[in-house]
Structure formats: structure tokens, C-alpha cells
Amino acid sequence: MNFSDQNPITLSFPESFETERLLIRSAHFGDGVLVNPAIIESMEELRPWMAWAKSVPTLEETEVSVRKARLSFLERTALCFHLFHKQSGEFMGSSGLHHINWQSRKFEIGYWLRTSCVGQGLVTEAVSGTTDFVINELQANRVEIRCDARNMRSAKVAERLGFALEAVLRSESCDVSGNLRDMMVFAKVRGSEF
């Protein structure tokens, strides 16, 4: 059976992988206790860009989100990965695969890092590892990174990793305040960028 014809829920692939400094693994039930403090610490940096960061979540709300992420992983509708420092075991942030099209094997990478870990190249490392995973393990044909056109830090990650800026979608969606925003679309495509 062709990979693209297979029902995604039957696909088997690793739930974790490593980079030089990071263990990147799927979300597990119980991770809320690790994720919640990182979100609270990082709210001011996350709020402008992440729709889910409108208000500070309770521990229970974070655990519910983690459990939903786990179920989505098992259903293969979205693949949320948690980032852990290999030496300290500290939760560092998240990198996930969203807006998946299994037939065409298109994936969008999203990511965030807790504030205390910013500036160490960890997001670039995590996104590089996630890109390698989606290309090698999931046979991606297209990998995208989308970000608000004002989010230059996120755009720089895509540029550093060789993603091509394909478009700026004007007034594509609303930001967390309800204002229209432009969206940058970066991509790597099999046969040209990998």
C-alpha cells in the first residue's frame, strides 16, 4: 500500500527523537505539571502570537490540553512534541506538527520555548530536529512554517533552517486582539530544498 493511501491512524513511527541537547517526545498524560509553569513563566512572550495564550491557564486546564494533544497524536490529526533538556530533564517548550495532510504529506511546524531558555539556539535546534523527523520518518513532501509577519524571531528560525519565504498572506487572519494580521509562509519542498 502506498504511504499516502494508508489510513493515518494505522501508521507506526517513533514517538521521540533526540538532537544534540534535546529529547523531543510526544505529549504524555501527566505532562501538565511540567508544561503549566513554563506557560505561566512565558505568558508575556506567548500572548501576542499564540491564540491559546489569552489567559493564564490553571494546572487542570493545562493537563486537559496535554491530554487532548496526546489523543490527537494517537489519532494522527496533530503531533505535539515536548522538548526536554537531555542533561537536566527540564521541560523547555514544544514543537508540533499541525494542519497535516497525510495524502500529500504536508505538515506545518509550530513551536514555542519557555522564556528562561530563549537565546540559546534551542528553538532552532528543536525545529531542525522536527524537520528531520517529518522528512525522514513521515516522508514529508512539504514542510511549512507559518508566522505572524511581525514575529521576526520566529521568521528568523525559518530562515536559519533554509525554509524559503513563499508568500506573505495579507490580512489572512486575526491576531489574539482581533486585529487583522499578515501571515508569512515559509516552506521546504521535497526535490528542491531536501
Automatic annotation (TrEMBL):
Keyword NAD belongs to the record: no
GO MF annotation, one: protein-N-terminal-alanine acetyltransferase activity
Cellular compartments per GO CC: cytoplasm
Annotated PROSITE patterns: GNAT
Domain N-acetyltransferase positions: 33-188
Domain of life: Bacteria
Keyword vocabulary terms for this entry: Transferase
Repeat recorded as keyword: no
The name this protein goes by in its record: GNAT family N-acetyltransferase
